[in-house]
Description:
The chain is of the alpha/beta class. Helix content is 36%, strand content 20%.
Amino acid sequence: MSDADVTVRCLTPPGSAAIAALELRGSGAWDVVRELFRPRSGELLPDAPSAGLLVPGSIGPPPGDEVVLAVRAAAPEAVIEVHCHGGNEVVRWLIDTFHAAGTSVAGLSEAGKRVPTGHAELASLRPATEAFQLLVHAPSLRTASILLDQYHGAFDRALDDIDSAISENRVADATRCVEQLLQFVPLGAHLVHPWRVVLAGAPNVGKSSLLNALAGYQRCVVTPIPGTTRDVVTARLVFDGWPVELADTAGQRPTADPLEATGVARAAAARHDADLCVWVVETGAEPVWPTRDEPHVLRVVNKIDQPFAWTASWSGDLVSVSAQTGDGLDQLIRAIVDRLVPAPPPANTAIPITPEQVAGLQAISARLTEGRSEQARSEVARARGTSDK
């Protein structure tokens, strides 16, 4: 088999990312893929490709590297994408594997600056371009998959549905679709930038130990002396596929020490800016709870491996853990994730991922509320990037 007419190239920019995308193009591309790719289902690939085919599987000696195969075009020549783990070595190995199978290696695309050639219908749509530019910065496979859905047109299709509903005078349906999209604004803002979660509480309740336990390494200095933490110390983590920046803060108490007082003030500011505050108390001392006006608080009892010095009043949102033994850490992670992402979107869900998209949806909603349907359709076109400013 001669595959001289088949080229392989990397579509995504070099660097560390959750996933990367390779493109195989040419009349013999499907033959190369059928030779190297093993579908997860165990079934053989069809003899000929069909546009839109999406197949998970692996490449390489068993168990192989997990990839997702996507057929973008079947004629006049096959255009096939292979989505894989984004590490540089994985990408290099896959390119070498395809090259060894007889393909030629093309130069890298100008990924990160434009949508790859061969996607002209998507390249004209701003949401797909924006998703592609963010994709390389995705910190996890889960968030990368959501961005990939937008790149493949999920958000554009939602705009199409809104436009169709308006043109057919189904204003209630259009409004409902816009409202559903706006519900995902917080999620869309944290596909690349992490959720901010702050550990807070009185001194010496084990906040630093808890951050170390969740991070899996010694990020914070831990001593039995209260007030050791003076600054906000952070660690970038991924909980259940969602990016989280976890922050350890100074213990909350009145103090005459100017340095500690600065740390307490910084801790209060970090709590104010956080998406979630994890308020920690311990079993060995009477608990100091947050004030009633503290928003977005998850209460945690630490040091459950030690005797209680107070009568615990258990409630549904109180999580018990031991940073020392690791007991309850999985439940704490689950509780944090449930607070940040109470309703994870299913695959292919449209998600607004940029402030411009959010502003566009808000403009569409405003025009619909005002009863200005034609202006609402103009806002839809502007959000898609097909209307002149």
